[in-house]
Structure formats: C-alpha cells, structure tokens
Design brief:
Layout (H helix, E strand, L loop, with lengths): L24 H8 L3 H17 L4 E7 L8 H11 L5 E4 L1 H11 L5 E2 L6 H6 L2 E4 L2 E4 H14 L8 E2 L1 H19 L6 H8 L3 E2 L7 H10 L6 E2 L1 H16 L2 H4 L8 E7 L2 H8 L1 H8 L9 E5 L14 H6 L11 E4 L3 H15 L12 H13 L5
Parallel strand pairs: 1-2, 1-9, 2-7, 6-8, 9-10, 10-11
Antiparallel strand pairs: 3-5, 4-5
Helix pairs in contact: 2-15, 3-8, 3-15, 7-8, 10-13, 10-16
Length: 376
Amino acid sequence: MAKKKSRFLGGKRIDPTPIDKNTALADLVDESFMAYNAARLREACRLFSGKMLEDDVTIGVTLTGALTPAGLGISAIIPLIKAGFIDWIISTGANLYHDTHFGIGLNLHQGNTLISDVVLREEEVVRIYDIFFDYSVLLDTDSFFRRLIEHDEFQRSMSSAEFHYLCGKYVREREKKLGIKEKSLLGVAYEYGVPIYTSSPGDSSIGMNIAAKELQGGKLVLNPNLDVNETASIVLAAKRGVVHSGKKTKKGGKSAIFILGGGSPKNFALQTEPQIQEVLGIDEKGHDYFLQVTDARPDTGGLSGATPGEAVSWGKVDPDKLPDAVVCYVDSTVALPIITAYALARHEKRKPKRLYDRRGEFMDLLKSEYEKSERR
C-alpha cells in the first residue's frame, strides 16, 4: 500500500532553473532563491509586489542605518517613490542629512576599511565604514541648513513632515541651479507629496543645527506631538478607506509597513496602531502587512529584532494578517535594491497618493473618531 503523502510536502519542489547570462533579476529571485534567507527575501519581494502594492494599500517605509550615504536613496528609494510604491516615510535624521549632500552637489566616495582612522582624521576625511568624504561636506551641509532655517517660514513650531517638505523645496531648487537631476530623496518626496517624519528630530546634524540657531533666537521647533498624531491619522485614514476613495467606506483599506533596519523609526511607524487603539480608544485591529529587513536578533529583547508576532500582542499588527508578515534577515543594502528591482519588474506603477497634501483631512478624521471615544 502506497504511503499517504504528508500535507507538509505541498511546497514547490526544489528544482531551480540553471542561471545563465540572460537570467533577469526577478526571475533569479523566483527560480533560485529556494531556501534559508534567500527564500525569505523571495517572500519579501512577492509580499511587497503582490499584496502591498494593491491600490487600496497605503505603504509606510522606515529608514535606519546609513542607507543614503551608500547611494540607496538615489538607486532605490527615489525610484520607488516615483513609481508610487512609497506613500509615507519615517527616517532617522542622519539619513536625511546625508541625503542632502547629494542634492547640494557634494561628493561621497568608496573607501577602504583598512585605512587608519588616525590618518583619515589627519587628512580631514570622514568615514562611514567604507564610505569616505571630505570634512568640508559636513561643514557645507551644516551651512546650508543654517541658512535655510533662518527664513521666515521656518520661524514657528511645525511637524517634522512640514519641515522636511520645506527643506525638500529648497534642495530641489538647488538641484535645478546645479543641473542635478533627482539625486535627493528630500527633493523627490517634496515633488511627489510624500510626507517624511523623523522620530527623533534632535538625534542628527539637522537637529543639532536647529538647536544651534535657537541659541541665536531662532523660533523653529519640531513638535513631536504633531508627528505622533499625524502618522496615526494617516494609518486610520488608510484603514477606513479614506486614502483610497476619499471617503470612509465599509470595506475600508489596508496599511502596510516596510521596515528597513529597526530602531526608533520602526517603533514610531508601528506605534500608530496603539496610539489609535490604546490611547485614543478608537476601534482598530492593527497593520495589515509587516515586512522587515533586519540583522537584529529577537532574543536580545531589542525593538529592532522584535517579531511581527510580538507586535500582535501590542495591537500593532492585525493577528489575522500574520501569514502576510515577513522578516528577512539580510543587510538592507543587499535586500533593498533586489526588492526594488523585483517590484519594478513585476508591478505596474501606481498613482502617487500625495498624502502630504491631505494631512488636514486625515487629522479631521482622527479628531472626529476621538470625539466619540470613551478615552477622552
């Protein structure tokens, strides 16, 4: 009698197509990334392009680690924004500061990690692992931001999204004067109406320069309360179908979070759901899609390594959607270009949602639902 086939043997048979000189990257992922972290990267590519890019899904991306100095703003994040594949962003301030180097015509170079840092210091060369640049790059970028925030339109309290939008406008103008085409994430986000938040505004050279200007009487303050509520309102509007349809729908919409690294931006994006549910007392279940690229372990207790299952216990992720959660233990500098190329090959462009322009509308929705809450 033939043995009954186990239900656990229903996965695709491992029999990859041999790689040749004509193999396209998307086909390489589908046919050769069969197991281990390669398989998780394949799952990440398919989750992003197959489900997260549906029209009724609003996609938030978090950026940690030195991604923009490595050119990933230019090579991957900007193409994703232009394709309509990123709707809102939470980034470390450092990524936005280093992004600005490219937008104002400054140069970063590939380097060698074996060079003595004492020698580099003597040569006034700054190092980010194997990225080298002249110390003047920092001074020139500091000067750019200091001159920028002296303008009257910056002399008030605002959300970090509004601050970065205004910065993006000026960076884009500098690019045009220099004949530079779309090298700055800030500039492209401004043009496409993608709001960019920073979860820790003082933790970067941008924040340091804002603090320095305050010593001279500057009135600019980045208000974290606005950031907390605005990001929560974006997620609520996504889940209520407002982002997609322009009005609340019974069917609603979906929220997806694409996490590159971890850290504070990861928590800031995920805490939008506890803000909605726990603090504001609004009926909600959690984000629909969770995709993280990280090198952090879960067993050390750090937020960067916390799993989507753990996030369920906080109300951050919808428990019914855990099958649509992927954690890929790969360096972001490896995974992001591959996911980007795969998505651009496998999915047509989406119309940009221009969430920045609709922040007031989303905040009105958040306030109206909070008015009905018993938590007030």
